[in-house]
């Protein structure tokens, strides 16, 4: 039987409170609380190394939350495909919620989180998912020929570079989240439904 403390754990490591983190982290926590109504557990758990967390967040935010070359739904699709392939609970749940929101299609988003090949993706989405899976599972096997289906689906050079960056970001973030046992916030499960 788990104790209340064990059931409430969000990481394998102790999580610092607001007095133990840099001011920039406290501001980010406050902004998240104001914008989405809760502080994502990944924000709290990674704050153990506050300055490193802020550096990660700045790049992550640039790739996922700013105007980019891919649509928000496409970037989140890739995030969920990579996270599903890597079996990263935190990222599959949290970015599954974002995909539901951006796509407006909870059924499709949930299918992507389990097995993207059964999600009835468009040809462009299929090309993104296929490439994301290959780069995640077999990075040394990726060749220039793997760009052909992306180009056939209409991606330009800027979109291809952004796609690769999002795939890389999620492969790294999945490993951090899984290695440190991050638990997704319960709030994610109801978003976009």
From TrEMBL:
<dbReference type="GO" id="GO:0051920">
    <property type="term" value="F:peroxiredoxin activity"/>
</dbReference>
<keyword id="KW-0575">Peroxidase</keyword>
<protein>
    <submittedName>
        <fullName>Uncharacterized peroxidase-related enzyme</fullName>
    </submittedName>
</protein>
<dbReference type="Pfam" id="PF02627">
    <property type="entry name" value="CMD"/>
</dbReference>
<dbReference type="InterPro" id="IPR003779">
    <property type="entry name" value="CMD-like"/>
</dbReference>
<dbReference type="InterPro" id="IPR004675">
    <property type="entry name" value="AhpD_core"/>
</dbReference>
<feature type="domain" description="Carboxymuconolactone decarboxylase-like">
    <location>
        <begin position="52"/>
        <end position="133"/>
    </location>
</feature>
<dbReference type="InterPro" id="IPR010195">
    <property type="entry name" value="Uncharacterised_peroxidase-rel"/>
</dbReference>
<dbReference type="InterPro" id="IPR029032">
    <property type="entry name" value="AhpD-like"/>
</dbReference>
<keyword id="KW-0560">Oxidoreductase</keyword>
